[in-house]
Amino acid sequence: MDEILYGVAYYYEYLPTDRLSEDAAMMKDCGINVVRIGESTWAYQEPQDGVFKTDYLTRILDTLHAYGLKVIIGTPTYAIPSWLAKKHPDILLTNKNGQRPYGARQIMDISNSAFRFHAERIIRRQMETTARHPAVIGFQVDNETKHYGAEGANVQAQFVAYLKAKFGEPEAMNKAFGLHYWSNSVFDWADMPSTIGTINGSLRNEFEKFRRLLVTEYLAWQVDIVNEYKQPHQFVTQNFDMDWRSGSYAIQASVDHFEAARAMDIAGIDIYHGTGDRLDGVMIAFGGDLARSMKQDNYLVVETSAQSILGPSNQELLYPGQLRTQAYSHLANGANAVMYWHWHSIHNSAETYWKGLLSHDMEPNPTYLEAKEVAAELEELSPALVNLKKDNEVAIYFSNEALTSLKEFAFSKQMDYNDIVRNWYETLYKMNVEADFADHTVDDLSRYKLLLVPPLYTASDAELEKLNAYVENGGHILYGFKSGFTDEHVQVHMERQPAMLRETLGFSYQQFTGIDRLPLKDDPFGVGESDNYVSIWAELLTPEGAEVLGRYDHPHWGRYACITQNRYGKGQATYIGAWPSPAIMQKLIADAVGKAGVERPNTHFPVIIRKGVNGQGAVLHYVFNYSPEPQTTAGPVMRSTDLLTGKKYNGQTVLPLEPWGVAILRED
Amino acid sequence: MDEILYGVAYYYEYLPTDRLSEDAAMMKDCGINVVRIGESTWAYQEPQDGVFKTDYLTRILDTLHAYGLKVIIGTPTYAIPSWLAKKHPDILLTNKNGQRPYGARQIMDISNSAFRFHAERIIRRQMETTARHPAVIGFQVDNETKHYGAEGANVQAQFVAYLKAKFGEPEAMNKAFGLHYWSNSVFDWADMPSTIGTINGSLRNEFEKFRRLLVTEYLAWQVDIVNEYKQPHQFVTQNFDMDWRSGSYAIQASVDHFEAARAMDIAGIDIYHGTGDRLDGVMIAFGGDLARSMKQDNYLVVETSAQSILGPSNQELLYPGQLRTQAYSHLANGANAVMYWHWHSIHNSAETYWKGLLSHDMEPNPTYLEAKEVAAELEELSPALVNLKKDNEVAIYFSNEALTSLKEFAFSKQMDYNDIVRNWYETLYKMNVEADFADHTVDDLSRYKLLLVPPLYTASDAELEKLNAYVENGGHILYGFKSGFTDEHVQVHMERQPAMLRETLGFSYQQFTGIDRLPLKDDPFGVGESDNYVSIWAELLTPEGAEVLGRYDHPHWGRYACITQNRYGKGQATYIGAWPSPAIMQKLIADAVGKAGVERPNTHFPVIIRKGVNGQGAVLHYVFNYSPEPQTTAGPVMRSTDLLTGKKYNGQTVLPLEPWGVAILRED
Amino acid sequence: MDEILYGVAYYYEYLPTDRLSEDAAMMKDCGINVVRIGESTWAYQEPQDGVFKTDYLTRILDTLHAYGLKVIIGTPTYAIPSWLAKKHPDILLTNKNGQRPYGARQIMDISNSAFRFHAERIIRRQMETTARHPAVIGFQVDNETKHYGAEGANVQAQFVAYLKAKFGEPEAMNKAFGLHYWSNSVFDWADMPSTIGTINGSLRNEFEKFRRLLVTEYLAWQVDIVNEYKQPHQFVTQNFDMDWRSGSYAIQASVDHFEAARAMDIAGIDIYHGTGDRLDGVMIAFGGDLARSMKQDNYLVVETSAQSILGPSNQELLYPGQLRTQAYSHLANGANAVMYWHWHSIHNSAETYWKGLLSHDMEPNPTYLEAKEVAAELEELSPALVNLKKDNEVAIYFSNEALTSLKEFAFSKQMDYNDIVRNWYETLYKMNVEADFADHTVDDLSRYKLLLVPPLYTASDAELEKLNAYVENGGHILYGFKSGFTDEHVQVHMERQPAMLRETLGFSYQQFTGIDRLPLKDDPFGVGESDNYVSIWAELLTPEGAEVLGRYDHPHWGRYACITQNRYGKGQATYIGAWPSPAIMQKLIADAVGKAGVERPNTHFPVIIRKGVNGQGAVLHYVFNYSPEPQTTAGPVMRSTDLLTGKKYNGQTVLPLEPWGVAILRED
C-alpha cells in the first residue's frame, strides 16, 4: 500500500432517497479516499431467486470513481434474503436455543450446501460486475464471520465425520476425551449423540475447535472464488472482530484469527472502543496489535466509531478532537487504513444509533468537519505515515483452545481467560511496552525477548515443548495459573503438575484451593497493605529449584509458594499461581519486562508512546495524551521533528500535549 | 348513572360450598349495591362442548335480586375450558417463547376462528339467560383484554394481509420500513417472514400497532353480540387495565384504550395501587384520569384492592381507614363505581392471596366492617357525589406508538417511556394540577391550556401538524427529548432534527450523546448542587430563536443548550433535551403550568385536592391527606360545607385532616 | 455393622490408564476398608445393546479382595449409555423446558418402560456377576435418585390414571383442587390437560406428590431385583441427597426420604458441606440426623468431600486437620461409614474439580496422608465408635408437601420453607440441642418432648389431629406461621384460621400483611433495639386463651399479637406469626427447649457436643471446636476418658480444644 486509506462504509441501498452523487461529492469534499460497499445487501442485488440487479453497483462505482474515490467491494453474504430463508429454511442455523428465526444477520449455517450454492452464485455475479472496474482496489469477503454458535444436524454430522477421521475407532475418542465418565462413551459412530447436551468439556472443546475450522474453511472458500476475478493490484481482506462486551474486547472465541487470515492478502479488523472520557487507546492498540500480528504486516481498520454507538448502554459521542486522536491511534499501531462505520447514520432498524460521520440529516456536522481536517492532515503526511513497521520484543501468547476450554472449566464466576488477556495487555500498554500477539501457529518465537502466557489450560505436548525450548534458548515467559494443566484433549495430565512445565518452572503442586482474598507474606512486592493480595484461585506450589517471589500469608497455606521465578537453560520462567491484585500484576510484568531486557520509555499512561519505522525508513514515535488534562512527557525529548507541527526537538525540550492530543516525532 | 355503585366481583363458581344466600345477605348487610358475575367461568357454564349449564346464573340473579342487589354480567371468554383447548389446540396462542400450555387465563389467540365460534356461542347463551333479568344493569365484555403477545401463524397471516392492504406492493413497505437493511427486504408477499425474529423496529412497531387493532376489533365484536340482547337501560363496559409493575403502572402497551373504548357505553378500569404506608393516591388518580378521558365521561372502577395483594412481593394490608380514603379517591376523579376485587378470598390457585373483602373464613372481619361504614356514607352522599365532571386545563398527551417504538429503540436500560409518563403525571399530581389524558385520536386539543408530551418518538406528519397548530393557536406544550425524531413508520427524518418541530421549538440539533450525569451551567433552576443535573441522554441543541433555559456544564458540550423555551404563534413550546433530576423536572412543570395560566391550589402532596362539578351542579373539592401524620391545608378554606361532617367553612378556617383522612368541601 | 467403614468411591472405568493393582495397594496402605464401584458405568458394562462386558468387575473384585478391601456394588442406572438414548429417544425426560438432550446423568424418565427393561437387564447381569463374590458386602441401588422434573407425556398419562384412581369422577377433583377457578375444571378425564401450564397450586402439589411416589416405586423396584441376588450378610442402601444450594441444603423436594428408605436395609446419604473457614458442622449434623431418622438407625455417609469441590464458586480445600474433624463429625451423628467422593480426581468432564483423596497425579499428597492417619485412628477406635445410638428429645417435624406447596404459594422472594428448616435446625445445633427429623409417616411422636414445626402449610385432618393429640398428651410444639392454613389438597380452610389448630394454639386470625420490618412492642425478648424485629410476613393474631409473647409495635397492627404460647391439655404450643430476627428466633427456641425440659450442655457454637451410646453400651460425648482459634469447654468435664488421647477427666478439669479439634469423651 502506498498511502493511508481514509474511508467509510457506504450503504446506498439503505438510504430512503437516492443521494449517490451528493454523497460522493461530500465524501470527496471531506477528504475520504476509499469507500466500502456491497456487504449485507444481497437482497438488493438479488431480490428474487436468480433475479439479479447488480447493475446499480456499476453506477455506484462509476460515480465514486468520477470523484476519485477508491472502492472496496464486500461480498454480501452475511445477511441472507428473505426469499432464501423461505426457500431453504434449513439454512437458518440451529444453536443451543433452537433454530434462529429469520431477521438478523449471521443467522445461517455457513456450512449448509444450499447456502453455499446461493452464496457462490451471488459472489460470482458481483465479481463479474465489479472486479475489473478501475475504482475497485480490493475485496472484503463476508463480514465479521463466525460460526454463530451453529450446532444443528448438519454441523453435527460434519463433526462426527471429523471425529471419525481424527480417531478412527470410537474407543480412541472415548479414551482421549474420557467419555466413559457418566456412560458417555460411544462404541459405534452411529450412536454419537449431539454435542448440545454434553457434559464432557473435552468433547465440547473439540467441537469448538471444529467450528472454528468451519469458519477458516468458509472464508478460504470465498477467497478462492474472489481470487478467480481479482486483478493483480487488488487485495482481499476480511473484517475480523474481537470478543464483544459492550465494545471490542479481547480474543474472539469463534474464529482462529491467525489461521483464517492466511487466505487473506491483508488483515482487516473492526475496533469499537471507549469514547469521550473513556477514550484510553487500549482497545485500539489491542485490536491493532492483534491485526498486525495476524500476518506480521500492516492491516486495515475496516470499521471504527464515527460519532460512536449511542444507545441504551449510553456510550458517549466522541469529543471534539477525539476523531483525530483516534485516527492517529490506529496508525500508530501499524494500520494503513482508518475506515469509519459508516458514512451516514441509518434511518431505521438495529443500528440506527450507531451514528456515522453524517447524522440522519445528511448535512455537514461537527464530526464531519473534524474528519475533513483529519483527512487533510493525513493526505499531507501519508508518505511519512504509511507502512509503519514494528519490531516488538514482547508477545502475548494466546490460545483459543485455552479460551474456550476455560469456559467449560471456569475458575471463577467473576472473570475468565479473556479478562486476564485484556488485563495483562492493558498493564503492558500503560507502561508503554508494545506487544505482538502470537499463538501456536507462530513457528519462530525467538524473535521475542518475553512472552506473556495467560492460563494455557490446554496444550499439546509439541506446543509445550516449543515453549520449553524457547525458555531454554534464552527466552523469558510469564505464565498464568493453570498453564499446562491439561493435554490437547483437555484431559488433565496424570503427572504431577505443572506436568510438562515442571522442570522449566522449577516447582510442582498437587493441590489448590478457591479463595476470596489472601495476602502475600511480608508484602514482597512492596505494594502496601491494601494492594497486597491475591484472589479467586490459589495453587499450592512447592519449589523445586525456583525462586519464590511470593508466599501465601495463611496459617495453613503459608508453607506454599504462590509466585515463582526459575532460570531454565539460558532463559527464565515466572509463574503466578493465583490472581494477583492489579498492583502486584503491574510489578510482576514490570519485573518480567526488565529482566528480559525489553526497552521501554520512561513514561506511562495517560501519556502513551507507540513506535515504528515508516515506509521511508525513518523512526516515528507517536506520543498521545489520553486524558482531558494537558500533559507533558516525563523528560527531555530526543532529536526529532513533530510531523504535525513541524516543531523540532532535541534533548533539552519537554513535549507538551493538549488534552487528547498527539505528537508524531520523527527521529532526525 | 344516578347513584354511586359500590360493588364486588363474586365467584359463586369458585367457592367450595354453596353460600349463595348467605353471601347475598352479607353483601346486603355490608351495603354493597352491585355485583359483577360470570367472567372467567366458561367451563362452569359449558362443562362440555355444547353442553350448557347456564341455568345456575338465573338462580344467582334471582337471589341477588331478592336482596336488592344489581348485577353486571361479565362474558366468560378470557379463560377457556380445558375441553376447548383439547379440541382446538391451535386456539392456544404462540408468543415469542413458543405456544402457551393450557392453564392460565388469557392464553388464547383472540383472532382464532374456532375460538370466536365457541366464544360467540357461550356469549349468546349467557345473554339469552341473563339479559332480560331485572337485576342486570349492564355487561362487561371479556376482561383485561389484550393481545397477549400473540405472534403465531394465524396472527402472522393476518398481519401480512394487513401489510398488503396498507402498502400494495412490497417495495413500498421496504421503503417505509427500511427493510433493505441487512437484506430484510421482501419482493413477494409470499416471502414475508414471521415478525418474531425481525431486527427492524419499524416493522416491529407496525406489528404492535396491528396487534392492538386485533384487540379493538375483538372487543367491538363482543359488544356487537351483546348489543343484540342489551336492554335500553343497560350498559356495556370493559375492564381495561394498565401496564403492570407489581401494581398498575402507566400506559398499557397492548391496547389502544381510546380506540377500544369507543364500542363501550361507559369506560371501566381496574386499579391496583400502593397500600399501607405506600397509599399515595397517584395510581388511583392516574387510572381515574385515564379512564375518564377515554370517553370524556364518568367511569367505573371495576376492580380495586379490598384487603390488598399479599404475597411474595409483600404488599401491605390496607390500614384501618384506608378503605374509605381509597373509595373517595376513586370518586374524586370521576368514578361512578367502586368495585372491589373481590367479595371473598379464593381458596386455591393463583390468586389465593389477592384477598377479598372477606377472608377465606367468609366471616365479617375489620375490612368488611369498614366497607359497611363506607357504604353507609356513600349511600347517604350518593346524590351529591355521583356524576362528578371535570374541566381540566392540562393533558398528558401520550402515544402507544411512541411507547412501543421506544421499546425497540430504547434510550436507557434503566428507564423507558412509561417511566417518563408516570414521573410527569406524578409531578403534576403532587402539585395538585389535575390532568386529562389525550392521544392522537383526540380531535380538539384546544380545550387544554397545556399539553405535556413525553418523548413522542414516532408521529405522522398530520399528528405533528396538529400539535404545531395547537401551539400556534395559543397552546402550551412541554416536550420530552426524542420528540418528532421519526415518522409514522419509525423511520428517522432526513431533515435536521427536530424536523417538523424545528420551527415550533426554535432550535435544531444534529448530535446527541449518552451521559451518566451532567450538571447544568450555573444551576439555572436554583435547585442546589446535588439536584442540578441531567442524566442518561443529552441532545446537543443549537438555538434558532428559542430561549435557553439550561445549558450543559461540560468542556465540550457547554456550547449547546439542553432545555429551551420558544414562543410560537400565540403559544409556547418548551423542550427538554435530556432526562432532568426530579427537582428540575418539578421546576419545569411548575413553570409550564404557571406560564400556561393553569390554576392550582396552594398546597402540595401529601395534601391532595381534586375538584369537579357534581350532578347537581355544585362544585366539590375532595381534600385528602395521604400520610400517616395529621395535616392541615395551607391556608384559609373557601366558603363551603364538608359533606362528610356537615361542618361549614369560610375564609377564616384552616382545614384539619386526619392521617389518611379526607374532606369533601362543597362550595356554598 | 460391626466396624466403622472408611471408604471411597472408585471409578476404574474413568481412569486414563489401568491402575487397578496400584490403586488397591494404595487404598490398603491408606487404611481404606471399603470401596464403592459400579454406579454410573452402564456403557462400560454394556457397550452395545445386549453386549455385556461385566467380566472386568470380577477382576476388580478379585483385586480389591486380595487387598482385603470390602466392596459395595452400585447399580449403574443413573447414567444411560448413548446407544440407549439413540434407540429409545423417548427415554430422555421432558421437563418444563422441553426434552433433555443426551449428555448429563439423570436425564431419563425413570418410569419409562423401555428404560425399565434395559435397566433391569443390566442390573441382573451385574448382580449375577458380583453378588456372590466374597468381597461384596452390600449394594447401592441407583444414585441420588429423584424424579428430575419429569413432566412428559408418559408421566402425565400415569398422573391422570393416578387422579382417576384417587377421585373417581373429575368433579371430585375439581372440588378438591378448586379447578373451577379460571375454567380449569375437567368434566371428562380425556380432557385433562398437561400439568406443565397449570396455575392451580393444588393440582401442582398433587403432581409433585405423585412424582415423589414415582421415585419411591422405582427404588423399591430396583431393591426387589437386587434382593433376588443378595446374600444374607449383604445390605442394600441408597445414596440419598438433600436440596442443593452450592452445597447440601435442607430437605429434598423431589423424594420422600422416609418413604423411599423403607425398601432399604440401611439408609445412605451424601453430604457436601462448607470447608476451610466455612467448616461449621451444621450440614454434617443436619444430613446425619436426617439419614439416621429415616430408619431410626445408623446410616452410611456414602459420599462426602475429600479435597472439596474447587471450581468457579470457589469452595476451599479442607485445611490440614479438617479431614479428621469431618470424619468424627459424621460419626458423632451416628454414621457407621465415612466414604469419600472419591478415591481419585477425574481427569475430564463435569467433576474434574471435585477433587478426590488423590489429585490427578495419583500420588500421595497431604490429603491422602491425613486420611491415612484418620484411618489408623478409626481402625483402633472402631469397636468403641461403631453403632452409636441416639435418644433425642427434639424433632424437626418437616413436610415435603409443605415444602413444595410453599413453592407454589411463596410468601417471600427472599426465603422459602427450606430456609426456615435450615435456620431452625442451625439454631438448635448451635445451642447444642440434638434433634431427629420426623414427618407424617412417623406414627409415634410421643418419644419427643418438643417438635419444631416449620410452616406446615398443608396437612390432612388426620395429620393435624395427630399433632393436636401430641400436645394434648403433654408434647410441646413450636409452629411457624402459615401452619394449618390449607387442607391436604392445599385448599384454604373455610374455618377461621388457624382452623384445626385454633383450639390448640389458643388464638385466631383473619388477616395478615406483608411487611418490610416491624419492631415488637417493648422488646419482649430483650434482644436490643437492632435485633428486635420481625419481617416479611405478619399474621394479625387475636388471642383466645393464649399468652402473648410478642405484639407488633405499629399504629394499626399494635392491637394484634405476633407470637403466642398456649397450654393445651398437658402440653404447650407456641406459634410465631411472622419471621423473627435471628436473635428472637434463638430466644424462642431456647425457651421452647427449656420449657419442654430438654437437657442441653452449657456450651454453644463453636464448641459443639454430640452425644450417644455406643455399641458397647458406653456413653460417648464428641466435643468439637469448629473454629480456627483454640477453645475450651465452658466448665468442668465429667468423669470420662478421651478416646483419642487416653486422657482422663473428672469434674475439675477444663477440656482444651485445638483449632478444628475434637475430643471423644467416654463416660467412665
From TrEMBL, chains A, B, C:
Gene3D superfamilies: 3.40.50.880, Glycosidases, Golgi alpha-mannosidase II. One of its GO terms (molecular function) is metal ion binding. Residues 623-667 form the Beta-galactosidase C-terminal domain. This is Beta-galactosidase. It comes from Phaeodactylibacter xiamenensis. The active site is at 144 (proton donor), 303 (nucleophile). Keywords: Glycosidase, Hydrolase, Metal-binding, Zinc. It catalyses: Hydrolysis of terminal non-reducing beta-D-galactose residues in beta-D-galactosides.
